[in-house]
Design goal:
This protein is an alpha+beta fold. It is 43% helix and 14% strand. The protein has one domain: Aminoglycoside 3'-phosphotransferase, Chain: A, domain 2 (Alpha-Beta Complex), CATH 3.90.1200.10. The protein has 10 helices and 10 strands. The protein has a 5-stranded antiparallel sheet with strand order 1-2-3-5-4. Strands 6-8-9 form a 3-stranded antiparallel sheet, covered by helices on one side. A two-stranded antiparallel sheet has the order 7-10. Helix 5 runs antiparallel to helix 6, helix 6 packs antiparallel against helix 9 and helix 9 runs antiparallel to helix 10. The radius of gyration is 20 Å and the shape is globular. It starts with 9 loop residues before the first helix and ends in an 11-residue tail after the last helix.
């Protein structure tokens, strides 16, 4: 694609967006929201540390043994769903993150804030790929909740808002919107081979924690009622596109779950393309946070455009 003459660097676009107020969620603003939210909830945040800034901001407050999760503005329903999902999984004795005992979610400057018991354990690692398959198999077979309704999965639901406000050049924005429209037109005609059920929506090994070497599922923001193929295609995309798994590792995941989604010839490529787009636009939100993220965004855009590119770096 030819770059238009009025396209600017990522840094120039980011600066313009900050001055116009378009970029409203940064590490600096997240700190202020965290402090305010903890004060309202009675949580000691004096020694809090930023764990990660991505779709959400995650903070650890060690004195309170709490993880504070701050969503981007406008996602209050998702935060309430996370709270409901945590309670439902607890009722089902499913090993999952537990809520900290305060009234929640709360809202600070239109940002939903939730509080979670800190899990004193280790994060998921490469060696846990088979365990991820086992956890997903169990999750997909869990009875749906009776006290609330899981929303139907809409895997592209956040992509357009991300593209519209991201600090990226116009040519990138146009390309991504066209790709989004193309994929949205393909999804309704897919005929999925597996039965629908509860799905995680962001199923990768970093959304597992391990305490005493027992897996605990975390991050319920994208939980939905939908097709298990979506969860399985995440790992398959990490294997085939990003290059994060070896063939042997991916096979362990397949064996543990009992189904290889790449064998679904009529639909897998479309789901993989959706994941490539969502993974790129997720990263794109923070291109002005570091030069490393900005560089990785360019790598992923080359992949989406069908240009030669190295493997993707995880963030």
């Amino acid at each position: 694609m030819t770059i238009q003459a009025d396209d600017r660097t990522l840094g120039a676009v980011a600066a313009e967006n900050r001055s116009s107020g378009k970029t409203s969620f940064s590490s600096a603003s997240a700190w202020e929201i965290m402090r305010t939210g903890c004060s309202q909830a009675g949580v000691d945040s004096a020694d809090a540390k930023l764990i990660r800034l991505g779709e959400n901001a995650l903070f650890h407050a060690p004195k309170a043994a709490v993880v504070v999760r701050i969503a981007r503005s406008g996602y209050g329903r998702d935060a309430l769903k996370e709270v409901n999902v945590a309670r439902w999984l607890a009722e089902r004795n499913f090993p999952a993150a537990e809520l900290y005992p305060v009234d929640q979610p709360i809202t600070v400057d239109d940002h939903p804030v939730t509080f979670w018991k800190f899990i004193d354990g280790r994060p998921g690692e490469r060696r846990d790929i088979a365990t991820l398959g086992e956890v997903l198999r169990r999750l997909h077979g869990t009875r749906s909740p009776s006290s609330f309704n899981l929303p139907h999965a809409h895997m592209l639901g956040r992509v357009q808002p991300r593209i519209e406000i991201a600090p990226i050049p116009k040519s990138d924005r146009s390309f991504l919107l066209d790709r989004l429209s193309e994929l949205e037109s393909k999804l309704p005609s897919l005929r999925f081979p597996l039965k629908p059920g509860p799905i995680h929506g962001d199923a990768h090994n970093e959304n597992l924690m391990f305490r005493n070497e027992k897996a605990i599922l975390i991050d319920f923001e994208r939980f939905a009622w939908g097709q298990p193929e979506w969860d399985l295609t995440m790992t398959a995309t990490e294997y085939l596109t990003a290059g994060w798994w070896s063939t042997d590792e991916y096979q362990k995941f397949v064996d543990a779950y009992g189904y290889d989604v790449t064998s679904w010839h009529d639909g897998f490529d479309t789901l993989k393309a959706v994941n490539e787009l969502t993974m790129t636009t997720w990263l794109m939100q923070n291109v002005d946070e570091s030069t490393e993220i900005a560089a990785e965004y360019q790598v992923r855009m080359r992949t989406l455009r069908g240009e030669p590119s190295p493997g993707w770096r995880p963030f």
